[in-house]
């Protein structure tokens, strides 16, 4: 049997004291218990939850059995429950690719390993490997509108309340808010997102579409923006699926392969007031190709490695060093700053986690046991 949580032990002793016949009024119970939980691996899931399971309401019964689900207190874990509309759930091959993006991440752990273990829960739909008992199909709705309200309603009806502190919730849907956006994460960071590359807007989603969009939206939950630490999109030195240039087609590697994860390098910044074409992305661009915007609004992509000179202003040469160019196409002149995403993930968005932050637990007044007075009144 697992050790009982401390709060349960306190309530039990109070109840025993009451039943022992004390006529003194019980001391008022403080209404909030704040616990700074130990989180050795920094994934926002306290060691106690990852070791013993999570008891959401302090009744001594584990509600989310984290160790049985594969959690490790010394390695970063992410849990994602996936609900889905008919035909929209990603394939097993796509889910395998998502897992691989995280398992191969350049993130170190206290147990000496690298990578993040992502636990995807599709219920029974994709076999035991992706079944943690939570994911399920929901009614088809080709337009979640308004998206936040309708997503929250589906979450409330299809996601166990006790999971809120552990699992991110996502939905494989069709479209939302009358538009054709590929997805939505509602907040940065957050605990909820939707992937909406469905039939209504003729996405004809492939595994690539689903993998790129899932990883992108989850990235918002993990604190990442379209420019890394800022919202500037299409920065050629930001080699991440968080960049719209690479969400659906992958980050382009110079060896011809594609990468479907978050950036693991931070190439040199580019000053659009006087970008140095001869420098390309600098030495950290060697393993990549990249894309940027020309003055005519069209996207151009390097044919070779991005540490080579790049024609940022699209005038046919790669020798300009003092000519302004709007390289990310946003009609402003900025310094384009990249980010190493993996070094900047925020765990514990929304309601997820206890982590190193003091966490307000359920008020003890809501866990109130039967009082002696009430017990006597029953007879
Ligand atoms: Ca942890
Ligand atoms: Ca962990
Ligand atoms: Ca040029
Ligand atoms: Ca610009
Ligand atoms: Zn986005």
Automatic annotation (TrEMBL):
Pfam families: Reprolysin_3. InterPro entries: MetalloPept_cat_dom_sf (IPR024079). Keywords: Signal. It comes from the Bacteria. Residues 1-26 form the signal peptide. This is Uncharacterized protein.
């Amino acid at each position: 049997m697992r050790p009982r949580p401390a709060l349960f032990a306190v309530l039990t002793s109070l109840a025993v004291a009451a039943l022992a016949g004390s006529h003194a009024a019980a001391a008022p119970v403080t209404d909030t218990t704040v616990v700074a939980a130990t989180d050795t691996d920094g994934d926002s899931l306290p060691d106690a939850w990852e070791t013993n399971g999570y008891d959401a309401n302090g009744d001594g019964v584990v509600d989310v059995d984290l160790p049985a689900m594969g959690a490790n207190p010394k390695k970063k874990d992410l849990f994602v429950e996936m609900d889905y509309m008919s035909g929209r759930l990603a394939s097993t091959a796509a889910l395998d690719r998502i897992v691989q993006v995280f398992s191969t991440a350049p993130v170190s752990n206290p147990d000496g390993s690298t990578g993040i273990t992502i636990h995807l829960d599709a219920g029974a739909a994709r076999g035991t490997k992706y079944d943690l008992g939570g994911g399920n199909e929901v009614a088809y709705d080709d337009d979640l509108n308004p998206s936040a309200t309708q997503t929250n309603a589906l979450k409330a009806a299809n996601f166990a309340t006790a999971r809120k502190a552990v699992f991110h919730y996502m939905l494989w849907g069709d479209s939302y808010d009358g538009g054709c956006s590929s997805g939505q994460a509602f907040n940065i960071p957050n605990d909820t997102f939707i992937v909406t590359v469905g039939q209504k807007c003729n996405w004809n989603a492939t595994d690539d579409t689903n993998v790129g969009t899932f990883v992108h939206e989850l990235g918002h939950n993990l604190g990442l923006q379209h420019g890394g630490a800022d919202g500037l999109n299409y920065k050629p030195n930001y080699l991440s699926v968080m960049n719209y240039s690479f969400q659906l087609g992958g980050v382009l590697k110079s060896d011809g392969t594609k990468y479907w994860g978050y950036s693991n390098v931070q190439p040199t910044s580019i000053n659009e007031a006087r970008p140095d074409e001869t420098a390309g992305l600098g030495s950290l661009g060697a393993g990549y190709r990249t894309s940027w915007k020309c003055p005519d609004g069209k996207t151009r992509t390097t044919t070779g490695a991005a540490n080579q000179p790049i024609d940022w202003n699209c005038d046919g040469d790669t020798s300009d060093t003092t000519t302004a160019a709007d390289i990310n196409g946003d009609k402003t002149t900025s310094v384009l700053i990249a980010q190493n995403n993996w070094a900047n993930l925020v765990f514990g968005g929304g309601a997820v986690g206890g982590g190193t932050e003091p966490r307000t637990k359920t008020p003890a007044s809501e866990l109130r046991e039967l009082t002696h007075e009430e017990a006597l009144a029953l007879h």
